[in-house]
Amino acid sequence: MTDFSRSFLVPPTEHELEPGPVPSFSVLVAAYQVERFVAAALESALAQTVAPYEIVVCNDGSTDGTARVLEPFRDRIVYLRQNNGGESSAKNAAARAASGEFVVLLDADDLYLPKRLEALGQLASVRPDLDIVTTDAFVEIGGERARRVYADASRFELGNQRRAILGGNFIHGHCAIRRETFLTAGGFDESLHFTADWDCWIRLILGGARVGLVYEPLAVYRIWEGSLSSSRVAYAEGHVQTLAKTAARDDLDPDERAVLERSLASRRRTVALTAAEAALTEGDPSARAQLLRIALGSGYGASTRVKAAGAAVAPGAARRRLARQESSRLARPGY
Fold this sequence. Notes:
Strand content: 15-25%
Number of domains: 2
Number of helices: 13
CATH topology of the largest domain: Spore Coat Polysaccharide Biosynthesis Protein SpsA, Chain A
Number of strands: 11
Order of helices and strands: EEHEHEHEEHEEHHEHHEHHHHHE
């Protein structure tokens, strides 16, 4: 039975809109080194109460057993295989091969709950002006559901979405995007390895796209035990790269540019702090100087400056503390 009692969070409109038809959804899966997870992801897409128009899987040059695991699904999916080009390349290839009105993203290690596409279709029908629609999701850590993305961890922005997206990424990665809008905007920037999603949402929203949310957890975002030390600095640098790229645009009003500049300054401070922690963990002799610059610099909170000063004075104790934190950090498989 179709549920018409869902809670939709949508940006305001100047006039009442007539509902449109429910669009078709092509589920896109970029698969790289995910032999342990991809079957469950595909089963969750196939188990939808409203079936996807198609499921497009791009095997991005996996060298593990991903191809073997995908074999039983071959008659139920559109299957692509390419040399390893990265997550953005695989998603772009899948989007080009798709033919649904919307492309909806499913990471190969995540899950849809059964009514997700039904709910996305209802929202897209009620608000045919929206180019991006998504739902809340559970965050599952080490096999245990820990929280919801929007109810507990993030805020979905309804007012000025142009300004909001410059301050931070408020769009959960399982979103559905109008396919023609996505392709016309160039898809994901394949030169960005860590923040291509945020960059894409920035470009889409600054180009006029609007975003709506089904305020119900209808997907599962899974995080597993592992180390992130090798990628945290690069990830922080990716945020800076994305914002620096956006700063080169000439279509921002003064308020939007002010938000962007504050966001960029904050992300640069995060890069410096993350790099200093990595240097300390690795025993790099430059760590003390980096920490002192943070302790004596401006822009950081008092607590951060005190901790940086303490780490510069007693690097051994700080290194052991960071090592304990590192051992409990969680990571995503595949990409």
